[in-house]
Structure formats: C-alpha cells, structure tokens
Amino acid sequence: MNFLVTSIAIGTLTFFSACQSNNNNTGSAQHTVEHQTDQQQQASATSQPTLPVAKEPARQLPNFKFYKVKSGIGFTNADVPANRNTVFILFDPSCGHCQTETGLLAKNYEKLKDVNLYFISMNDPALMASFLETFGKELVGKPNVEVLYDRNQEFIQKFHVPAQFPANYIYGADGTLKNSWDGEKGIDFVIAEFTK
C-alpha cells in the first residue's frame, strides 16, 4: 500500500513540476503544466487507482489541511483570518513566472497588507523554504503571508488542477470564489483582483 501511495505522489509531483515554455499571442513565455506524465500513463495501464482531481475551480473554499513550510505545523480553514480576501497561489519554486509574480507582489506589499496571501506547492519543502527570501523578501515575516506545503495533494483534489503556473485563486470573506486564473498576468491586474 505504501508503494502505491508513493507512486501516486511521485506521479502527481512530476505532473506539477513538468512544465514547458510556450509562446502566447503576445510573445511572452508561459509556464505550462503537462497533463499526462509517463508515470500517470503507466498507472492507468496497470489499473492503479488515481487521485480524484478538481477540473473546475472550487466555487466555495474547500476544507483543507496544508503545512507551514517553516514549522511543519498544520494549517486549515480555521487558521484563515476572516473578513478579508484570501488568495491561494499554486506555484513551483523553479517557475520563472512564479518567481516574477512573487517579486512584484512583494514590491507592492503595502497594497496587499489586508489580503491573506498563501503560496502553496507540492514540491519538496526544502526547495520551498527559501522561496520568499529569494524572490519576495518584502513578504517574509508578514502576518498575512505564508508558504504552505501540500503534502497530500489536496489542492488538485479539492481546489483545481491548473494548466499553468502560477495559478491564482481569490476567495472573498464569505469563502466564495471571486476569480481565478492560470499563468502570468500584469501586476496591476493581479493587485486589482486581489483587493477587489
């Protein structure tokens, strides 16, 4: 059983870390997630069960349990401060677009101090540990910002499977999805949507 769970986890991690650059209509590169890895194809061929995935963004904030990268302490819905927008950013630490968005968010922190910002990844916590210090140092230690490890692949099961990184999901104070998108957007658009 442990082998099966490990195989599924490795396949899922590969699923999200296997990105390639494509050009969009404006000529800028976008980070794209491959939807079918070799390991997933092998799992399908051997009839192993696969994790259920959310094909559409969750309309209501689902119950979840992630883990704070710095401390390993569990983080759930109950830990999300109320009465403000909550943003989940699914990222890959090696994604250039994720790094750029994080840097731009950091430079605009004063506009975002009343928004909960959660950076989430299924990557090895060791790869995530210095992400903010490296790409968004102005966000380090802020009370409304946290880097979370998705140990059990809950994001893709309960929130959504994005096509591109970074993937942004904005939930209002009532837990209702206000907006979501995959891939890189202009920082003015991002800030306007996060604070709307």
From TrEMBL:
Comp. bias regions, Low complexity: 38-48
Domain Thioredoxin stretches: 55-196
Domain of life per record: Bacteria
Molecular function GO labels: antioxidant activity; oxidoreductase activity
InterPro entries with a match to the protein in the record: AhpC/TSA, Thioredoxin-like_sf, Thioredoxin_domain
Region: Disordered, residue numbers: 26-54
Gene3D superfamilies: Glutaredoxin (3.40.30.10)
Pfam families (UniProt xref): AhpC-TSA
Protein name: Redoxin domain-containing protein
Species the sequence originates in: Sphingobacterium phlebotomi
